[in-house]
Amino acid sequence: MVNMLVNERGAHGFVVRCLGRLKARRRYEYALVWGVCLLALLLGMAKASIYPFGDTAFVRADGLWQYVGYTGWASEILHGEGSPFYSFAKSLGGGTLSLFQGMAMSPTTLLLAFVDSADVPKFFSLLMMLKLPLCGVTCHVFLRKRFSFHGIVHVLLSCSYGTMMCLFTTGSNIMWLDNIVALPLFALGVYYVVQRKRPLLLFVVTALCIVDNWYCAYMACLFSVICFFLEVAFSPQRSWMFFIKRGLYFACTMLLALGASMVVFLPIIKAMFGAAAVTTNAAASGVSWSSASYSLDDLLRNYYLGNASVFEPDFGNFPISGLALLLAMSLFFIPGHRKIKVAVAVVLAVFVASYVYQPLGLIWSGFVRADSYIPRFIYIWQFSLVVAAALAFSLLKKLPRKKRAVSLAVPLVLFSGAMLYEHLRIPFDSLPMLVFQLAVMLLFAVLLCVPLFSRWAYEGKEEPRTPSPVRAFAGRRWGQAMSVIVPCALSLCFVVENAWAVSRIVYTPEYNVALMSVDSYEEYMKGFEAHLNEVASSESESFYRAEKGTFSSLGDSDVNDQVLSEYMALGMRGLTHYSSYMQQSVNDLLGSLGYCDTPGFRSITVYNSPMLLPDSLLGLKYLFVQYDYLPGCSMVGTAEDVAEGANIFRNDNALPLGYGVAEDIASVEWSEDVFSNQEKWLSAMTGDDESGIYRDALVVSRENAGDADAAAATESATAADEFLVTAQADGPLYLYLNTDDGVYGGAKNAGALFADGSFVQSVSAGLFDTNVVYLGDYTEGASVEVRFERSAEMKELDADQVFAASLNRERCEESLAKLAAAPLQVKSVEDGYVEADFQGSFDGQKLLLTIPVEDGWKVSVNGRDQEPQSFNGLMVLEMDEGENYLSMEYHVPGMAAGFGVSLASVAIFTLWRVGAYAKSKGKSPERLMERGGGEKC
Predict the structure, then answer these.
(1) Residue 667, Cβ density class (10 Å: 0-12 exposed, 13-18 middle, ≥19 buried)
(2) Which residues contact 420 (CB under 8 A, 6 or more apart)?
(3) Pairing between β-strand 620-625 and β-strand 545-548 as defined by DSSP bridges
(4) Per-residue DSSP letter, 731
């Protein structure tokens, strides 16, 4: 037995052979790439106190507003709660396949089966530790397979892709990272198609990425077209026939991959045509919005390590690895190789032009305007730099040291001079950090030229003969030790550089809208869930809606800092929703009624302030708000554990999911006056003239605020507008500010609204807080002083932009009672399914359902299928006299057809490859290589 252990055929021999193969093939480099990326990430997380090294969550910006809640929703689905196809927690209700695909359809989502929705912020740290190093690993796969690269330079090039700053910033949209992981595999797949006629990798990667996230896959597919032209240009076979044949090969592969993804992609296409992001942000509005141009100075400044993006300081800076940038620039100073230089220059020029001239950048975003994370193709730009750096390195290693030194020194001097010029023009925030960055680049350049490091990095194969003393120096033991110390020092510089950037640029308060505490989030979500369970246990109705005020798991903070997706994780059926997948009809409806929204424009629906009339019409029965009194509501509990001063109110006038309405009900034409809109909408429902249910208040501008504007704007970049609002009737007083001055803004364009000196709510020009505000109950003749402290960027408000009105509560409740007389009796309701009874008073009676009209609903009334009518985006059905049985079930439109297309595409591809394999069987390897085209560049 002992002999067997030491025998080469025993366990010891097996281990030795495995280690020998590992060393010979240098596969340990993959672990090294993973380790360097992970170490850089962990050091940055530790310095910034990010979980598990502290209480701060690894989420920011859209990670706060969207991904935390939607990932929690995916966790609930995996635990058997909810459906990925439809949810009544998506505002008034809506199909959710496109939302699920855009936010949660990732292989790592399966891990959520072991994670509670309240622990999702902790889960995000795990995801980042998995996905960011994986980006570096796939890049290293590409470099090794495409260029046969090995060594520390190639490891650091891969790490530069895996830890570029845009990963940490777009990591706010954490599901984008899957396609960033896959991008190098796209490029490798194109190489296999063009040079080796092996389409399997490209087919699989393309299909899976479209299923995972079609938006990022679209950009990667565009980039694959660029890669195709580059591979054809670099191929030894230079003929039009070769280009045409490989072009057809490539096109067939991509088309079949697109077809294979149709089981998910076809339903998403159908859903997106009605989504707010598409209908209002398409090419025309996108070009007008993106007409502003950025300068090359701006592009250059974003390569400074300590510089946040000049345009979006919240979203961090561009990639900053000195090695990739230095080598990419050196390509153009290497003698000869004109074709490679021209090809790379054209590719990089495309990205520069797309950045400098924003309308051109619309090509990369699917001709849909991007409001943030601009440019969204930045990870493709960085990968292109890595590829250019790899090409440069493959050429540099064939040069003598002197020419190599010149090729590296010239771009280093030019870049250093440009950065110092930028510092003199507009000083960077940290000159020592700029010096550190330039020093690291200089160290890279020097070490690429010295014989000792060159011999180690280039594996001693193509390095020109060195003087005898140098060879003797390299052969000494301490010289060999230096070949280990130097790469470690380089890796340490890289790790320190990126760790500093992670901790400072990405996750510090001055560069973020808010920071999330993982413990506070867990406590908040569990507390809120307990309150919702208490309400459900005391409620007799099977369907009701609930909303909350201006607080969230981030605390009682500015409205702009709310977690707007926690509704989905809690299964809370309200009005609030923030994503690019909301139906435009719902967007217009809620905005026109006075909720936070901008009708006709893609915006964010947030419930900030109660409004008795529309709340009741839409069935909002329970309100978690920081008020002590609400008209028409009864206080049924407190929620101090989730927000200070929060109480739970039951709206005694809330209507059910459906109710009988006027026989001639028809959609109304909206105006800018939200109070008039509410009256017209109610009139259409009741069939009576409901005008006058709101009584306009008298609004007078206070002149004494004008003198303070200039001083305030100069000293604190704020200004103030003051108004005196006098109620002309008894009842609840509401206020609406028309701040839509053409500035699409968020917190930077927000102002603070005060009533009689007390803060009421923030109000902006188009994002989170453009809603009607409840000021309180006032008697006729009572006045309230309203002060609007706005940012200097917002225009001064005139009195005609201030809408205030008192609600005639008695008339309001009479009209609501009239509608409540014919209620829908809901027997069973789940996401995507409703079963109910309705007692009709006459044949043809109209039943209004506060469910949005959407393709996919199969509606049956008394066993007969019926196509719903639309009343400003909501369903209207015709009922028979007497007892009516209503059954509704949602089916994802296009999924069955998409499944058929996917099945056919996979079958065709399989038959194609089996036929190709059978055809090539028996041919000599030399002939196959000749047909495949090629050698590596």
Answers:
(1) middle
(2) 434
(3) parallel
(4) E
Cα gap 584→578, rounded to integer Å: 12
| Side chain identity, residue 162 | G
916 and 870 share a domain? no
Q: Does residue 3 fall inside a structural domain?
A: no
Separation CA 416–CA 423 (nearest Å): 10
Give the range of the structural domain holding residue 726, as residue numbers without chain letter.
Answer: 696-807
Least confident of 39-43, 169-173, 352-356, 549-553: 169-173
Rounded distance between C-alpha atoms, residue 464 and residue 452, angstroms: 12
Q: What is the pTM of this model?
A: 0.86
Tokens 């299928």 locate to 865
Count CB neighbours of 168 within 10 A.
Answer: 24
Task: List the one residue out of 129, 111, 148, 107 whose CA is nearest residue 35.
Answer: 129
Asked whether residue 900 falls in the same domain as residue 876, the answer is no
In a domain, 254, yes or no: yes
Please check whether residue 840 lies inside any domain of the structure.
yes
Q: Are residues 539 and 656 in the same domain?
A: yes
Nearest to 319 by CA among 332, 303, 343: 303
Which of 277, 317, 281, 280 is closest to 298 using CA atoms?
A: 317
pLDDT tens digits for range 244-273: 999 999 999 999 999 999 999 999 988 877
The structural domain count of the chain equals 4
| pLDDT tens-digit map of 199-224 | 999 999 999 999 998 988 999 999 99
Amino acid letter, 873: G
Same domain, 649 and 524: yes
Kindly give, in sequence order, each residue whose CB lies less than 8 Å from that of residue 711, ignoring residues fewer than 6 positions away.
Answer: none
Side chain identity at residue 617, one-letter code: L
| Alpha carbon 527 to its chain's center | 28
791 and 763, same structural domain?
yes
Alpha carbons 242 and 235: distance in angstroms, whole number: 10
Phi, psi of 298 (to 5 degrees): -65, -40
Give the β-pairing of 647-651 and 620-625. antiparallel
One domain for residues 633 and 522:
yes
Task: Look over the chain and give the mean of its residue pLDDT values, rounded to a whole number.
Answer: 82
* CB contact set of 359 (below 8 Å; sequence gap of 6+): 286, 287, 290, 291
Give the model's pLDDT for residue 459. Answer: 45
Q: Determine the Cα–Cα distance for residues 188 and 179; give it in Å rounded to an integer.
A: 14
> What would the DSSP string read from start to end of 637-683?
EE-TTTSTT-EEEEETT---SEEEE-TT--PPPP-S-HHHHHHHHHH
Residues 682, 685, 691, CA angle at the centre, nearest 5°?
35
Residue 511 reports pLDDT greater than 60: no
Highest-confidence segment of 374-383, 735-744, 862-871: 862-871
